[in-house]
Amino acid sequence: xxxxxxxxxxxxxxxxxxxxxxxxxxxxxxxxxxxxxxxxxxxxxxxxxxxxxxxxxxxxxxxxxxxxxxxxxxxxxxxxxxxxxxxxxxxxxxxxxxxxxxxxxxxxxxxxxxxxxxxxxxxxxxxxxxxxxxxxxxxxxxxxxxxxxxxxxxxxxxxxxxxxxxxxxxxxxxxxxxxxxxxxxxxxxxxxxxxxxxxxxxxxxxxxxxxxxxxxxxxxxxxxxxxxxxxxxxxxxxxxxxxxxxxxxxxxxxxxxxxxxxxxxxxxxxxxxxxxxxxxxxxxxxxxxxxxxxxxxxxxxxxxxxxxxxxxxxxxxxxxxxxxxxxxxxxxxxxxxxxxxxxxxxxxxxxxxxxxxxxxxxxxxxxxxxxxxxxxxxxxxxxxxxxxxxxxxxxxxxxxxxxxxxxxxxxxxxxxxxxxxxxxxxxxxxxxxxxxxxxxxxxxxxxxxxxxxxxxxxxxxxxxxxxxxxxxxxxxxxxxxxxxxxxxxxxxxxxxxxxxxxxxxxxxxxxxxxxxxxxxxxxxxxxxxxxxxxxxxxxxxxxxxxxxxxxxxxxxxxxxxxxxxxxxxxxxxxxxxxxxxxxxxxxxxxxxxxxxxxxxxxxxxxxxxxxxxxxxxxxxxxxxxxxxxxxxxxxxxxxxxxxxxxxxxxxxxxxxxxxxxxxxxxxxxxxxxxxxxxxxxxxxxxxxxxxxxxxxxxxxxxxxxxxxxxxxxxxxxxxxxxxxxxxxxxxxxxxxxxxxxxxxxxxxxxxxxxxxxxxxxxxxxxxxxxxxxxxxxxxxxxxxxxxxxxxxxxxxxxxxxxxxxxxxxxxxxxxxxxxxxxxxxxxxxxxxxxxxxxxxxxxxxxxxxxxxxxxxxxxxxxxxxxxxxxxxxxxxxxxxxxxxxxxxxxxxxxxxxxxxxxxxxxxxxxxxxxxxxxxxxxxxxxxxxxxxxxxxxxxxxxxxxxxxxxxxxxxxxxxxxxxxxxxxx
Amino acid sequence: xxxxxxxxxxxxxxxxxxxxxxxxxxxxxxxxxxxxxxxxxxxxxxxxxxxxxxxxxxxxxxxxxxxxxxxxxxxxx
Amino acid sequence: xxxxxxxxxxxxxxxxxxxxxxxxxxxxxxxxxxxxxxxxxxxxxxxxxxxxxxxxxxxxxxxxxxxxxxxxxxxxxxxxxxxxxxxxxxxxxxxxxxxxxxxxxxxxxxxxxxxxxxxxxxxxxxxxxxxxxxxxxxxxxxxxxxxxxxxxxxxxxxxxxxxxxxxxxxxxxxxxxxxxxxxxxxxxxxxxxxxxxxxxxxxxxxxxxxxxxxxxx
Lengths: 969, 77, 217
Fold this sequence. Notes:
The structure holds three protein chains of three kinds. Chain A is an alpha/beta fold. Helix content of chain A is 30%, strand content 15%. In chain A, the strands form ten sheets. Chain A has a seven-stranded mixed beta sheet, sandwiched between helices. In chain A, helix 22 links the parallel strand 15 and strand 16. In chain C, 24% of the residues lie in helices and 12% in strands.
């Protein structure tokens, strides 16, 4: 068979190709061959649709002589590391991408996803959702934008009229940039409901709650770069090598220069392969392990007693609890780690300070997630590692802007900046928005304005539960999935029922997402798909995990008929009648189709105007853009600019960047760092929980304060009374006095209180207090281990039972004990003896439809699989590479390829969560709109996951449930 | 005498035709040199702009650019 | 004299496949053609190591030696390239290459790529530099732009180094001196008889045997 020189065109069909190929290579068996040449599931079907549409400079400049070549600097849209990308755009076509070596965050490095973002600009054979679509009689039909906006708008208004605004659930996105996420919260508020949420709920909601309640802000305390100063890093529940690959650049450099690395994980992950020490623990037993470490730390006197005396409240109570409960035998019984190993890890962390702890979903996605993360915090407080460069609690967030969306975006329980939903907060934001408070109040149903909404992890119950048990008027009748995937939430089988029951489902996304396929599988109509633009088709700021804000330039105009999310929000606002209020403070421009679009710069300016709590006030668009242009002037380890136009700033002005942009606060690279002046990025712990408790002062000890402060003792947060008492009131200008009278630092719209306190006196506006090792507003004041609802150890369930059921929690009854007890009674752990955990792959991100539509990524992971230990596989006569059924106690079953490996220990299985597009063995290709299905599809692990929610934030328990794996007959 | 000249002329003509035929024809067998590249010529990377043949400049640029893969340059130890 | 080389630091490679997709993206490589791949040994157990492999641009390239139509050539910088117009797709280079670098896409489906394709060190091929013809047949010519291969420039942990051999060696040397180990993947420990840990014995040395020549105690 001669491979002749190229001829023409018609691509050969699948079977013919295989025959030809087979005749050439007869020694290789077909399976290996198919695997090698990529003719596995999916590839054959689209072999004729290869993305060969790269247009070189010559072709792009076909029409006309003037070739416009531009370089746009943007930031990858996938994870929260925030790698910069230089996009070459020729006559509006994205032709190339180049690494940005100047960026202090990634120094030009990318993972598989970042190196292939240019695919977002390819038009030929794109799997994007290209036009608005409507499900008509089970088939997807193209409709115009006019029709889409009108029909969807009318339907929503009808449901709102009949059932109230809370009947519509708006799921926003952690992939929106800051401006879009912020606008979403405003939009939903003006619509009249708090039923909004985004991916943070199912990612780090427990972190935010747990950490904020311990010491002030619920965010990564240091940064990826700062890890270069660490002497010992413990990754517990984090697979950074796959979830945050470029962060490993910093960690491995640190390791090369002497740092130690420990990985604690039920799986021997790729991160563990780089560690000095690996500890295998049972999923969900982190508290036993962490407190087991703390036991040894206390026993050997390794804790930092001075630090504890000055800056921590309640450590003595914790010590008493830990020494009594977490002796080595109990630790080993619960988490499976022997005393010698726990001791060794404790010693490593204690003797190699500053040491840091890194966690991700492994710690957060449990019913006791809030307690687990607090256990990590307590460990670090005991070692005196918080507020220290090289130490800290380095929480790696997930999506590119989950941090920003959490900070200023659509949270059901707060307004932008974590201001909460009390009347005072509403009035404050109404002031910032320039809107009448009473008008906003009228939009809401009675009594609902100050009530937290339901969470995205439970929207299905808000639809399905009997109306008398849910804490809102009518049930949720309409869902708007605005930049969110469905297959990342648990209980897929229940979700499909909820999708059947809805009156209306709207998906606004650059890709149809699994929502489209799931709905088309079970419904005939009532579903709309609206094409949104990606983050490369708009500009805006994005907050990386280390709290740095980066500004993205718009690379290309929105492709096909897609529209940027903020433009769509305005369009819907017009339909709903509040566009004037929504866009009051913005600069409006017309886009290429004449639609009204608020400029991201003007939205950011509004965020700057109002978000004092977390210091989003100093990061003006001008300062951020200057940073992006001068990245090379920033030092990589400290993130500080030395010389150049940004001299003194920290890269991206990591929040809190207090005060107005004129104050020129440099940002805070490491939180709570008392070794620096507050105007130099320093800080202390927040005074948020009162001045004293049980006779013990909650304020910081004498002599513990940010460097150079005029106040050398602990103090509560700054307000006008405080200022007057200290005699500093007159340092405010007259305008500032007018604004600050009767206000505190969070509600003083002039920023004067902050300016005087910080600049003139080195005083931290949020006070100087102790971190709380014991809290009193959580179900467990000191973290307690509780077995997961679907526990593999009924004997331990008796010793460490879960919480009591809750009647009304985020508007819904939430079960704990009743489910756990039933599982024990029904012997679920015997019928489903394997622990099922899920997690990430480096090639894909989130729900996966976006990355599985990129052929360069899709080729690398073509099928969903289950990692199963050889012992468990042999018990079931399962052979590596064969398809098996994974069965869940819910009755769901999914079919995946078995990967027999020692990566997981006996008794544990792992399935990546990025796949969707198969339903219990059936390919859902036919249910996607034509040409818009992802290239690779597979079962969603969450079709088979179970009930279980965190006791504070309603985080889903995805990291530990039970399953059985059987050979496919 | 005329007959000899005629024959000679014919013989000469035939021989000339043969010789001329030899000149106009191409060799039927490729003159193959084992081990030498037989394809199109390629320019060195520094041929085009911005280097325009300046090999030293190109090498210097490349050496410098290689250091972008060395984070020690920017970070120190 | 710049001699182009690749070196993948197995201590740093985290199998992120950034190099793989960077190459795919930069050279518009079709599905099924794997110019660069990451190979992992001991997957899932302690001792797991990954290394990114593509064409090694050998000095005495076996592919060049065996090609029946001699379509290979080496540039001055040491990059091994070939002329697709001459290539007959026999696959002999594929047999000869110890690294599996030559790739053969399916006939007919990929336009001009129905011939052997492999990593070009982002140096294009024997068409005019930076022309569309060169791009369509061979991919990008980054060397002609004064840049280096996309895979090495985009590596997530800077494990994969690609560029002038001397500079690369220097970079790698600095890392190894800093970390004090890592080259044992390539057998330095075995070659020089130096144990990794102070208590470990050099492989194969029984007590009392004379030290091997060059071995340090």
